[in-house]
Design a protein that fits this description.
Elements: H1 8-28, H2 35-60
């Protein structure tokens, strides 16, 4: 892992990606929710989002006789 300090540009890039996602979660939280609660929910929601993405990608993959032969398999 790189131990060099982050540059302001790197932090801005990360913040530009993080805060819109955080705002989505925060807007769905009850008014009395704490930031810590929102971050915990965000972690859970993002885990679910990754799972849903993987499920969608798996559905779009060809299967059975629809697979294209790329020539890497060996005949029996």
């Amino acid at each position: 892992m790189n131990k060099k300090p982050l540059t302001p540009e790197e932090v801005k890039q990360a913040a530009d990606q993080f805060f819109p996602l955080f705002d989505v979660i925060l807007s769905n939280m009850p008014e009395e929710s704490k930031i810590e609660d929102c971050l915990k929910v965000m972690e859970t929601v993002c885990t679910l989002a990754h799972k849903l993405r993987a499920d969608e990608e798996e559905k779009s993959l060809p299967f059975g006789f629809n697979k294209k032969d790329d020539g890497t398999s060996t005949p029996d």
